[in-house]
């Protein structure tokens, strides 16, 4: 599993008009080729009357699956430029579809490349970009007398709280960056004077929204 990667936050859409042609971008997260094609078919069904529904997507930890489709536009003027935007933004598991309604003015090959690139980028901006970081969930068991101090310490630390459970002892679940488990154990041991029972749990991705990720 990748320690960190970028993808879109979720669904997003935006529209731009260039020389009277409408370019409507749709973007979403897709973690399989099947999901990407399902998304494409949904947009094509929605815009069955459009001149073109061009698409591109990148899927896989190492970008193993890359597809681009011009859907009738001159070869290399739509799908590939959109794919290049995904690569430039370093996005994984992301699908983009740009629907075009022709406005009667031809843009030429260069104009189409710029238009589809701009539309794809605007759709990504509308969807938002997140960083997904692989974290280890650590389980810390403490007596109730420690709860106020440790909760406060954690909220001012690099270890986000995932959950707090109340049993005979308090169980606090925290996210710890993979590879930093021993550092966390030492930190928690010091904060509790050695009174905490600490165990290691499963891994999970934690998302952080990226502002102006271009």
UniProtKB/TrEMBL annotation:
PROSITE patterns assigned to the protein according to its UniProt record, in alphabetical order: UPF0029
Lineage: Bacteria, Bacillati, Bacillota, Bacilli, Bacillales
Stated family: Belongs to the IMPACT family.
Name of the molecule in the record: YigZ family protein
Ranges in coiled-coil conformation: none
Residues covered by the UPF0029 domain: 142-195
Entry GO terms, CC: cytoplasm
Gene Ontology biological-process annotations: regulation of translational initiation
